[in-house]
Structures are given as C-alpha cells and as structure tokens.
Description:
The complex is a heterodimer. In chain A, the strands form two sheets. In chain A, strands 2, 4, 5, 6, 9, 10 and 11 form a seven-stranded mixed beta sheet that branches. Chain A has a four-stranded antiparallel beta sheet with strand order 1-3-8-7, with no helix packed on it. By secondary structure, chain A is mainly β. Chain A is built from no helices and eleven strands. In chain A, strand 4 (31-37) and strand 5 (43-50) form a beta hairpin. The relative contact order of chain A is 0.34. Chain A is 0% helix and 50% strand. Chain B is mainly beta. Chain B is built from no helices and twelve strands. Chain B has strands at 3-5, 10-14, 19-21, 24-26, 32-39, 46-52, 60-61, 64-69, 74-79, 88-96, 103-105, 109-114. In chain B, the strands form three sheets. In chain B, strands 2, 5, 6, 10, 11 and 12 form a six-stranded mixed beta sheet that branches. Chain B has a four-stranded antiparallel beta sheet with strand order 3-9-8-7, with no helix packed on it. Chain B is globular and about 40 Å long. The interface between A and B is medium-sized, with 30 and 26 residues.
Amino acid sequence: xxxxxxxxxxxxxxxxxxxxxxxxxxxxxxxxxxxxxxxxxxxxxxxxxxxxxxxxxxxxxxxxxxxxxxxxxxxxxxxxxxxxxxxxxxxxxxxxxxxxxxxxxxxxxxxxxx
Amino acid sequence: xxxxxxxxxxxxxxxxxxxxxxxxxxxxxxxxxxxxxxxxxxxxxxxxxxxxxxxxxxxxxxxxxxxxxxxxxxxxxxxxxxxxxxxxxxxxxxxxxxxxxxxxxxxxxxxxxxx
Lengths: 114, 115
C-alpha cells in the first residue's frame, strides 16, 4: 500500500536554528498538508498546499513557517527560527482529490527544540 | 468555525467486549465528512472509518461501526470484540466538503484494553 514518507523521524535543534522537515507524499496525490501535535494535545492544522501554492493556512502558520514542493516529489516544511514551543510531532498528509478520502498521514517527525 | 468535542479523555474495555467512544461536532454546513483516526504508541495516524454526511446509513468496517446522528451532530464509534491491538488514542475529525479542506480534530480519547 502506498505510503507518505517523512524524514527525519526525530530531529533535535537549538532554539533559533532553522529546520526543514521533509515529506514524500503518495505519487499521484494532489493535495498536501502539514499538521502539528504538541505532546498530549490534539492534532492541529498548519497548512494545505495545492498546485504549487498554499490553499489555506492556520493562525499557527506565521511568517516563521514556509512550505515548498521543490522537485515535484518532496514537500517540505521550513521553520526559520525555532522556538521552544515549536517542539511537537509534525505530520505530513496527502490526498488524491475529492471529498471521499480521509488523508494518508506520514508517520511524523518529532521535533525537539532545546 | 467548526469544533469537534470528545468528552471522554480515557476509556477502558475488557478484551472481547464492546466499547463506544463519543464525539460531537458543531457546524453550519450541510455537506461534510467525519472520520475516526487511531493513533497507536508509534504515533502514526491511521484512518479507522469515515462517514459522508449525506448518507443516512452508518458506516461499518469490520469490528468498527459508527452511530451518526446528523440532527444531533453526534458521531460515535463502536468497537466490537475489542482486541489488545485496539489500545490507542482515538481522534474524531471533521472535514468540510471541499477538495482541499482541512481536518479539524477533537482532543482524543485514550482507549485501554484489559485482559
């Protein structure tokens, strides 16, 4: 069964550093998403991406965040200057199209900011 | 804005028994989709079951079924013949009808399965 792949599985970074989280969505999917889950809390939407542009973003997705699909396969989330409160599990998800699918989620990247 | 509420932070069920997890949601939309996701200790999000709001028939996937009450905005998950592998966090989620619509999650219910 096709999978959404995320790398790395765990990243530790110092406060103020830039991080890039990487995702390879399912190859024929058209819609891409990033979600965040702070430990012990619910999963929160960050951003959706379609046709090489952001479709929607949440209040969490401020100027420190950016997304990119640089080569037609990878889908990246960049955090420019990490803060302690950015420590969370970050999930990438993709969706083919239409309304019938839940998404396929990746296994997540655990980001720890120290 | 849409909200999803799961009022049971934790539930426990004995192996082979049946358990029901509750979920309510608030929306002014008439067309939308509802989901239950399972998150085991590995923290991957696994789709358990989905329901289209326009369908009156409740969705069923093997041991998992839902009780969808559109007027009451209620979407509960029933797990029959519970197994040890069912132990996980379960999240209810809502999505508007729209091709790029985001999922809105509840706070989750942690399910314990005991022998």
